[in-house]
Amino acid sequence: MRHYIALALLVTIFTAPWLATTFPEQADYVFAWMKYVGDQVAAVVAHNPRTIDELQKKYASSTPRKPHKIRVLIVPGHEPDYGGAEFGVLKERDMTIELGEQLALFLSANEKYEVIMSRTKQEWSPVFAEYFDRELDDIIVWQKAHKEESLRRVVTNQTSSSPKVYHNSAPDSVAYRLYGLTKWSNENAVDIAIHIHFNDYPGHGRIPGKYAGFAIYTPEAQYANSTTTRALSETMFKRLSKYNPVSNLPVESDGIIEERELIAIGANNTADAASALIEYGYMYEPQFLNIDTRGLAIKDLAFQTYLGLEDFFNPRGVRSLAATYDTLVLPYIWRRILPETSRELRDIYALQTALQVEGVYPPQGKDQYDCPRTGKIGPCTKSSVEVFQKKYGIEENGVGEKTIGELNRLYSGRSL
Ligand SMILES: [Zn+2]
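# zinc ion complex -> structure
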């Protein structure tokens, strides 16, 4: 297809001067048409997605003296003051910032990465604010050219299935900014783009909904950035799924979902960078609702995403102490016993996490959706604690001195 466009451009270039001199009154149209064709070709042909091999070599060969860092664009979902889900006082667009900033900290601490954030809680980063202002017309032309090229591929049947998942379609201005982020990424050699979201779905009002868990959206196989993104999505998925349930929304139950229509990850074959969109969980899940666990839960998701990125580049890499458990919740030191009525949410959250490592949480016959890590002691935790006590020969009712002692022996980090 690209060759046909290039041919069309050549024909245009050779015939335009003749057309312009033969029909002088139409010269403006001819030159406008030339520019249009030129823009289309530039948009579609100048496409340089990274292969898995290229990215891994870049990472491996980057040194402090000769840095060629992996450029990661972090896009906290939605706009500084607009859009996204809300549940009670929680706003998705603020939660995505919190996670994005944590992810940026993990990546920036590693000299192999260079991080670009699209926005803060209050505003677009200056480079993007300016880019959206200055480039709006170009973004629109560029986006249209890709769309037309995609439509041609659909007509000639080079494309696969119809989209599987329904997403709210973005209003034009929001869509253009999303396309703008992709165009900017192509022009500025971004290697990886991570779009951060939290989920919700309509109709459950102020009562927490029935779905839980995370999902990663990756570009459909027909797109040029699909293979690399898929590989990255798989390493991130592996880390995230160790402690967090995969979304049980039926269309998300594969965990990694190929998508054709999401602008963020390269709809119409626009993106060079490996581009994944992660829905990190449903906003009303208990670990996000409770103020005592929210910060840690979000930071942990950022940490696991970071480890997933590292795994992509460095499958046999050295692991830090914290990475021993793949979570920031452990190691943990418990300093008090935990009666059923305890409101020590952090202690109980860590207890539930340790029980999960032990393989006894959720208890037999239950799953992660029945028994999320709530930070509160309910039937799930009680049964799991009993199994844990049996396993270690502890005779005790509830989480008393002996159980706390055993937890500290195993999970306070002293034994590492
Ligand atoms: Zn969202």
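# post-check
Residues 126-155 form the longest helix (30 residues).
The first strand starts at residue 70 and ends at 76.
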